[in-house]
Each structure stands twice: as structure tokens, then as C-alpha cells.
Design goal:
Layout: E1 2-6, H1 11-22, E2 26-31, H2 38-48, E3 53-56, H3 62-71, E4 76-79, H4 86-91, H5 93-114, E5 118-124, H6 148-166, E6 171-177, E7 179-181, H7 200-209, E8 215-218, E9 230-231, E10 233-235, H8 236-252, E11 255-261, E12 267-268, H9 269-280, E13 286-289, H10 304-310, H11 318-331
Parallel strand pairs: 1-2, 1-4, 2-3, 4-5, 5-6, 6-11, 7-10, 8-13
Antiparallel strand pairs: 9-12
Helix pairs in contact: 1-2, 1-8, 3-5, 5-6, 7-9, 7-11, 9-11
The chain binds nicotinamide-adenine-dinucleotide and UDP-4-deoxy-4-formamido-beta-L-arabinopyranose.
């Protein structure tokens, strides 16, 4: 069975490609390296001990998609490719709408033309509105997104729902990831943000290795037990296995379906800092700063639908996530390059 993975050189994509290769799928990847590196592709091949076909290019390139869909007998698409930085999406919204929407449209058009009927899409907890009760369920209110990035995910979900409504034999799985972290246990691949990290744990890891003087902790006066924000952190390897479950689900279901991929457990920023310290033995310097605009005090998933329908649940603990992040960071203090 052949799986076409867009954005397969990126953080979640590379871990998923590795898992696909380990599960003996044929894998075809496209990535334009806008936020990733060639070295990652080579490392995935070495870790898996297997080769796969890689195309360097843009998912919006319709001629390239036509070439890929006519050269390979694709059974299922996993669409990771996209821009994902919340703050950047506020500064350059048109680039975000162009990249994230037009790549999804080009893919759907190619699927239509070449008779591919299954797609798994990387959506995000960011599609949920800020005024929901916790935990977030798939039926919780969506929209009122806090940034253009969030709207692109909301709109792509709708494009895919509409496409599956018009093509009754399509199977669309919309996976809403919560907060991914961690790395493959080899320490050979992991998250390699360019510039100053936007997300908490990559920042903690760079502070631990000495690339950052201290962690800016955004807000210590939230209405939570320790005053810091609570999130649902999930190991990237658990996310990868969620995609294996979604591929199996597509084989026996049509229509479009949303699933939360989270653990269902909330962890505060201060709890994350102390877990990282416990897992690694390294002290993290932090300074409490003003709140970061747009942050919700609390966000975590109800992952029970994925357990019931996909037969999937997250297995790895926060300590696993921290230890694996640290192994990657220590072995690759400057990332892939
Ligand atoms: P990432 O930036 O590491 O990976 C995305 C990959 O897509 C990169 O390798 C990039 O070079 C590639 N890419 C982007 N636009 C492209 C295009 N037009 N053509 C070809 N390649 C392109 O990000 P990630 O963390 O691995 O996220 C993967 C997906 O999951 C994204 O769609 C992201 O929005 C979504 N997501 C991520 C998170 C998170 O916190 N990491 C949470 C929820 C959802
Ligand atoms: C977590 C907590 C910060 C950095 C984002 C996107 C979301 C999804 C996952 C893609 C918050 C605090 C952070 C730092 C800090 N991505 N923090 N100092 O905001 O929950 O979600 O990534 O879909 O769409 O919005 O994750 O890791 O940025 O922040 O104190 O240097 O850590 O304020 O409370 P977030 P995060």
C-alpha cells in the first residue's frame, strides 16, 4: 500500500514517515524545505533501514502533483505540509492563506483527477473557539480563531468536508493535534525550529543546552492552580501511531470525521519545567513575563472518540516526552545543521 505524505521532512511528518516505513508501507514524500532540512530525510532513511521516494517541491505545483499521482499508485494521502507559526501568520496572513489553502485545494483536485479517495489532514486544537468548556470534544464550538493560522486549519477542514460530501466514496480524517513534543528515541530526528522557538518545550530545551539565557514564562497570574497556562502535551511518536490508526480507519469508512489527538491530561508551564528538570537533571532558568496575547488559560482534549473509533490512545508520559526531547537536543545542539 502506498502513502503520499506532504510535508514529510517536517517535525511530525518525519516521525510519521519513519513509522510508516517501520510498518512496511511504501512511502512517497513531497516537501519544499520551507521549514525543514534535507538532512532529516536522510536520517529517516537510515533509521528505517529502508528507502522511499522523495520529491523536492511545492504541493501547490499542480504539474508536479500530476507527475506524482501518475507515477505512483497512491492509496492514501497524509497532508502535513503547511505553515504553522501563530505569530508569523498575524504578520503575513496572505502567505498563510495562500500556502495552506492552495496546497489543500491542489491536493484535492489531484485526488479527484487521479481517483485517490483517502486523505488524512493535520488539523489543530486551534480550530476550537476560546469560550468552550474543558475538555474539548470534537463537537465543541469551532471558529472565532485567534489567528490566521487557525483560520487556515478551520477553512481546510471545511474544504475537505465539502469535498467528501460531493464524493461519497472519499474518506477524510481530520486529526486535531494538541501540543506535540518529544522525538524519536534514537535522538536522530526531532523538532528543529528556525530562529527563536515559538513553542514552550523547544524553548526549554534550548535554554537547557545554553542557546537561550532563560525561558520567558508568559503569564504567572492565570486562574489555574499555579497561575500558569495548562495544555495537553502529546508525544510525537503517539501522534505518528495515531496516523497509522487513521489509515486503517479510512479503509472501512467513508465521509469526513474529526478526531482529537491528545492525552486528555493537562500540564501547566511550571509543571512542564519541573518535569523537564526531573527527566534531565538540568536546571531551567525562567523569568515570569507578561501574558502572551491570545493564550487561553486552559486547553486539553477529550480523546475518547479516537479511542472508541480509531482504537488509538496516547501511551507516553510527560517524563518520556521530556527525556526524548532532551536526547535529541543534546545529540544535536544546533538541530540538523
Ligand atoms: P513543520 O513545519 O515541521 O512541517 C511542515 C512541513 O511542510 C515542513 O517540512 C515544510 O517545509 C513543509 N511545507 C510547508 N509548506 C509546503 C508546501 N507548500 N509544499 C511543500 N512542503 C511544504 O510542522 P509540523 O510541526 O511537523 O506540523 C505538521 C502539520 O501539523 C502542519 O500542517 C501543522 O499546521 C500541523 N500542526 C502542528 C502542530 C504543532 O504544534 N507542531 C499542532 C497542530 C497541528
Ligand atoms: C504553551 C504554553 C505559553 C513559549 C501552539 C499553537 C497551536 C498548536 C500548538 C499548531 C503557553 C507558554 C510558550 C515560551 C511560555 N500549533 N510559553 N514561554 O500556544 O498552546 O499552541 O502550538 O497547530 O495552534 O497555538 O503552545 O508551546 O506556544 O505554549 O511561557 O517561550 O507555554 O504562553 O501558556 P500553544 P505553546
Amino acid at each position: 500500500m502506498s502513502i503520499f505524505v506532504t510535508g514529510g521532512a517536517g517535525y511530525i511528518g518525519s516521525h510519521t514517515v519513519l513509522e510508516l516505513l517501520r510498518e512496511r508501507y511504501n512511502v512517497v514524500v513531497i516537501d519544499n524545505f520551507v521549514n525543514s532540512s534535507r538532512a532529516c530525510v536522510e536520517r529517516v532513511k537510515n533509521l528505517a533501514g529502508r528507502d522511499f521516494t522523495f520529491y523536492e517541491g511545492d504541493v501547490r505545483d499542480k504539474a508536479l502533483l500530476a507527475k506524482i499521482f501518475t507515477t505512483h499508485n497512491i492509496d492514501c494521502v497524509i497532508h502535513f505540509a503547511g505553515l504553522k507559526a501563530v505569530g508569523e501568520s498575524i504578520s503575513i496572513p496572505l502567505s498563510y492563506y495562500d500556502n495552506n489553502l492552495n496546497s489543500t485545494l491542489a491536493l484535492c483536485q489531484a485526488m479527484n483527477k487521479y481517483g485517490v479517495k483517502r486523505i488524512i489532514f493535520s488539523s489543530s486544537a486551534t480550530v476550537y473557539s476560546g469560550d468552550n468548556e474543558m475538555p474539548l470534544r470534537e463537537t465543541s464550538k469551532t471558529g472565532d480563531c485567534s489567528c490566521p493560522y487557525g483560520w487556515t486549519k478551520y477553512m481546510c477542514e471545511q474544504i475537505l468536508r465539502d469535498a467528501s460530501f460531493a464524493n461519497k466514496d472519499w474518506s477524510v480524517v481530520l486529526l486535531r493535534y494538541f501540543n506535540p513534543l518529544g522525538a524519536d528515541k534514537s535522538g536522530d530526528i526531532g523538532e528543529d525550529p528556525s530562529g527563536i522557538p515559538n513553542n514552550l518545550v523547544p524553548y526549554i530545551a534550548q535554554a537547557a543546552i545554553g542557546r537561550r539565557e532563560f525561558l520567558p514564562l508568559y503569564g504567572g497570574d492565570y486562574p489555574t492552580p499555579d497561575g500558569t497556562c495548562i495544555r495537553d502535551y502529546i508525544h510525537v511518536a503517539d501522534l505518528a501511531s495515531g496516523h497509522m490508526a487513521a489509515i486503517r480507519y479510512c479503509e472501512s469508512h467513508t465521509g469526513a470525521k474529526e478526531f482529537n489527538l491528545g492525552t486528555g491530561k493537562g500540564t501547566s508551564v511550571l509543571e512542564m519545567i519541573s518535569s523537564f528538570e526531573n527527566a534531565t537533571g538540568v536546571k531551567i532558568n525562567y523569568k515570569i513575563m507578561d501574558r502572551r496575547p491570545g493564550d487561553l488559560p486552559v486547553s486539553y482534549a477529550d480523546p475518547s472518540l479516537a479511542k472508541k473509533e480509531l482504537g488509538w490512545s496516547a501511551q507516553k508520559s510527560i517524563i518520556n516526552m521530556c527525556a526524548d526531547t532532551w536526547r535529541w537536543q543534546k545529540q544535536n545542539p544546533h538541530g540538523f545543521n
